[in-house]
Specification:
single chain, 149 residues, alpha+beta, 4-stranded mixed sheet, 16% strand
């Protein structure tokens, strides 16, 4: 299960990166709304393959639930536990996971190191002080206040 989670997470990031790069190459990243559209475009492309992966895992484990004979009681317990995980993982990954706060200055996007503080300022203009790490592409946040304060 961990391998499937890692694989689907990598592919989600790949789809988002490709959508961002395509929009940037086509000159469609002129505003925050354009960035949001590119992110949505990449995420929507990933939902169908993710759902198909979860459905295949579920369908593959269902026959075990109907099995009879030696060892079936143990296998049914394992299959039942595995059938719950893909469903919850799909919802978590497709809806919640991967969502990160970022700073967009009109031309570049920066991932923020602090993911709790930005929640207070979601959708607002802010003033941030900190240092940018070029290697990791992460902005280490020292302080964050609403713009104009």
């Amino acid at each position: 299960m961990i391998v499937v989670d890692a694989e689907t997470g990598v592919f989600m990031m790949l789809y988002l990166d490709l959508a961002h790069d395509q929009a940037k190459a086509e000159g469609r990243l002129r505003s925050l709304r354009d960035l949001q559209d590119a992110i949505m475009h990449g995420a929507v492309k990933r939902i169908r393959p993710k759902f198909m992966t979860v459905a295949t895992m579920f369908i593959g484990l269902v026959p075990i639930m109907w099995s009879m004979g030696a060892g079936a009681d143990v296998m049914r317990r394992i299959a039942a536990a595995m059938n719950v995980k893909p469903d919850s993982k799909c919802v978590t990954e497709c809806v919640k996971a991967g969502a990160k706060y970022a700073l967009y200055d009109g031309k570049s996007m920066y991932i923020l190191s602090d993911q709790k503080e930005p929640e207070k300022f979601a959708g607002q203009k802010v003033k941030i002080t900190g240092t940018y790490n070029e290697a990791t592409k992460i902005l280490q946040v020292d302080s964050m206040v609403a713009a104009g304060k």
